[in-house]
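As promised in the previous annual report, we have extended the structural survey to additional targets. Below is the entry for 3-deoxy-8-phosphooctulonate synthase.
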Amino acid sequence: MDLKRIPKLKHTDSTNFFLLAGPCAIEGEEMALKIAERIVKITDKLEIPFVFKGSFKKANRSRIDSFTGIGDEKALKILKKVSDTFDLPTVTDIHQESDAALAAAYVDVLQIPAFLVRQTDLLVAAAETGKVVNLKKGQFMSPESMQHAAQKIKDSGNDKVMITDRGTMFGYQDLVVDFRGIPTMRRFASTVLDVTHSLQQPNQSSGVTGGRPEMIETIARAGIVNNVDGLFIETHFNPREAKSDAANMLDLELLEGLLTRLVSIRKTINQF
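The corresponding structure token record, generated without further manual editing, is:
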């Protein structure tokens, strides 16, 4: 997919990967603006095309007392304010057909969560908004099978689709990234590597998902070397206090160093 089809996206003529980044969930206006401002400064400096990510609600939770959001329209209005304040595109997850039109009024990219990527009615509803659709690869799906999910979007009259790999289930409580899947999925659509969710350790007995954030750079470097089109990184200025995915988010203070090194790697890879 031509990146220039994403509204407000900057630096599309650079040879860098593009970036979907932000907090796991919108916890409030101040935190969203603070995180967005920092990422904008970094990505402008490095000329990385940047889409701000934030979930307006969290429907897939381990326990009933887990944080689910601050209110749908309240969170979506914050995403719109981030977009207007920094003149950048935004992406958020949708979980049911009625979410598609609601979220499309506020954001530029609709994301289908991995557990829901086979739900035909949801994919069709997203496609029919005319927005760019980001399909998270199901943890239970092969890279080859994602061609069918992407085709559902295209068959619904929308060719603005991309695929994001977020790891594959390995036993009950771990995920692995099979880098053989990147060239496979790039045949079907632009492909993104989610380097934070790929390091989750789900299904913990505590009911709180674990993670291995110390491996973020390892996974990200491997993705860049293998020509992934974009990276997906959840980041927070205080990951331990984040209300969702605290165990696997990247500390915002580490983001600039990581992206600087990844840009250097991409420049080297581009020579080949």
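The radius of gyration is 17 Å. DSSP finds eight helices and 13 strands in the chain. These points will be discussed at the next consortium meeting with the crystallography subgroup.
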